[in-house]
Amino acid sequence: MTPTSQKQKMLSGALYVADDPELDDDNRRISAWMDRYNARSTLTQPERQALLAEAFARVGEGCNIRPPFFCDYGYNISLGRGVFLNFNCCILDVVQVTIGDMTQIGPGVQIMTADHPRDPAQRRQMLEFGRPIAIGANVWIGGGAQILPGVTIGDDAIVGAGSVVTRDVPAGGTVVGNPARLRVPG
């Protein structure tokens, strides 16, 4: 079945209009949630986890996101057990974002599934689309890194601080730089 609503198109990764009124309720809901979450920096980890469970698709035991935190919808984010995100992270979750068990993410990291057409006529129509991001288990992402749409990062990988990840990272690999390149041991 072909998606017909803007939300169905967004969730399927098809071109959609991001500021369509159909998505207003979802935007207001997550904005109100972020206001509550980000205003409560003194909450305990279990209290934070309970708030995360209100907004996200899945929240494994022992997850902790230090506020401030920002996202597009929340309901496309799945966190494994023991996931940690430091201050000021942003997840643009127009489609699915999965983060595996025990992954640690530094401050100011941006995880962005939202993408835009390369065709200027489509951009003038304010169209965008999403490509899912999957981050494996026991991954370490350094502060200020950017993970671009469609990237998969394998288990036990390391992403250096400030790196811009434009391609998949193999399990156990280390990438650094802009664009991030695989670092060869030795």
UniProtKB/TrEMBL annotation:
InterPro entries: Hexapep, Hexapep_transf_CS, Hexapeptide_acetyltransf, Mac_dom, Trimer_LpxA-like_sf. Keywords: Acyltransferase, Nodulation, Repeat, Transferase. The keyword Acyltransferase applies. The keyword Ubl conjugation does not apply. One of its GO terms (molecular function) is O-acyltransferase activity. Gene3D superfamilies: Hexapeptide repeat proteins (2.160.10.10). One of its GO terms (cellular component) is cytosol. Residues 7-61 form the Maltose/galactoside acetyltransferase domain. CDD domains: LbH_MAT_GAT. Acetyltransferase implicated in the O-acetylation of Nod factors. Belongs to the transferase hexapeptide repeat family. This is Nodulation protein L. It comes from Methylobacterium aquaticum. The lineage of its organism: Bacteria, Pseudomonadati, Pseudomonadota, Alphaproteobacteria, Hyphomicrobiales.
